Amino acid sequence: MKLIKHIALIILIACNSMALAQVKFEAKVSKQKLGVNERLRIDFEMNKDGDNFNPPNFDGFTVVGGPNTSVSNSWINGERTYSKTYSYFLAPKSVGSFTIKQATIEIEGEIYKTFPVKIEVTKAVDRPKDGNNAEFIASENIHLVAEVSKTNPYLNEAITVVYKLYVSPDTGVSNWREKDNPRYNDFWSQNIEIKGLKIENGTYKGEDYRYVVLRKTVLYPQKTGELKIEPLSLDITVEVPTSRTDIFGNRIMTRVPKTVSAGSRTINVKPLPEAGKPADFKGAVGDYSFNVTTTKTELNATESLQALVEVSGKGNLKLFELPKLTAPSSLEVFEPEHKEYVSTNLSGMRGKISDSYTIVPAYKGKYPIPSISFSYFDLKTESYKRITSDEIIIDVLEGPSAMISSTNENPNKTSSKQNVITNKDQFAFIKTKPNLTSISTTHFFKSTLFWMSLLLPLLAIPLAIVIRRGKDKRDADVVGNKVRKADRLARKYLSEAKKNLGEKEQFYEALERALHNYLKAKLRIETSDFNKDKIIALLSQRNVNSQTIEEFTDLLESCELARYTPITTVTMQNDYEKAAKTISKLDKELR
After folding, report:
1. Is the domain of 253 the same as that of 323?
2. Per the confidence metrics, is the pTM higher than 0.85?
């Protein structure tokens, strides 16, 4: 009898062990020892579908590719084999020993974790130059280039840097991100906005390539001599063709993570010539026009006018000061208001800048605003030019007369201050009676607001009790909560798919999650139960139209197939619209 009990206990333990062993979730790496210039692939693989996958932080590494998702679902001799993998490509940040910590996922309501993986990073190693090696092919077919419009400009002369990514016709790029941004020390810089990446045809070292313009920047050197432009670096995932083909005869692409750099560029900046440099030159370089205007030339005392000092044209408009306006002491001149109407494109800054002065005369008479000169360096002729404005006479028609001492015979003279005897009506234009009126005040105590503030918290107690009971009832509805959660996830992932239009991997992963969670909400089944036959059977039992069922299963197949075939943005847009339409039809038919 005891022997039978022991055997039964052993069988029970073995059955429990087998049940626990049914779910597998593990981390696999391409290598555990690599050079600092190599890339590491890590796969998080599971044999049952799950939710809420959380990767580790990858301390000591930079993620240069991923997550890429692949799903394998097959039936062999009536037994289902399922595998789902999240893949990442990592670049080591330095030499040393590192540990990739645990990843987690929720499968059938349980949390599973991978084991930590130890990785040793050594010094840089030589990479093979093999025509069949995917990394070597990627390095030969992807090039990041910084094209500089001029390498020996004058100080404050505009130059442009255009960053282009060249890709050979047989190679593709699935995603990219900036790793190191270029730094423009000793330059004034402005990036030109690029609206959408446009693929163009061109040549690189005499061979046909496709390219996209990633960044355009306008630079104005602020220092002479040799100046360096720091490089732009990108982490990209390169799609390299292999010798294998898919069921449609298309060549299967393999993904290779790669870091490309445009390299640093040296700019030799020439100083502006000293010969012929005007004394009033303030650093303006370009092609300009200069004007000094006033809003009026006749007015009464205590009225105001505006004098505008304006420079317009093409050049370093934001990088120099405008000449100052001078006026007789009998004209009160306020600090100017500076305005800029400048646009920047690949040819540099263009527009106008101005200083607007408010001037108020105090006394009757005629007052001259002397001429002003503006100097700039003309890049076309490589010489200095000067523009001088005309003298402007301000005629003050009415107002108090200025009484001056005998030492100043000319009241309009600007070289010295006038000894003015003020008139008692000098400030007659200032309003001295404010005409203030009293306003009535009300007390808060025993007011309507007072009683409302006192009673509302008491009235809110029954409402809070009702809300609390409703929440407790919802919390107790386990099945209903699962359905509502799945419905929310379906809407979330469908919205996420729309945001990722153009990014193949992220788009189809989000779309697949949306479809799965929709089924979980409507049919109340777990993701581990998903297969085409069961979905068709369950939907048919709910009297769903056969055409709608076929559209839904076609969408699921498209999500799996899209990971292995080239997909255009137009196809992704069509799949998204088809998914939204199909879910809408299912909603109506499943009621």
Report:
1. no
2. no
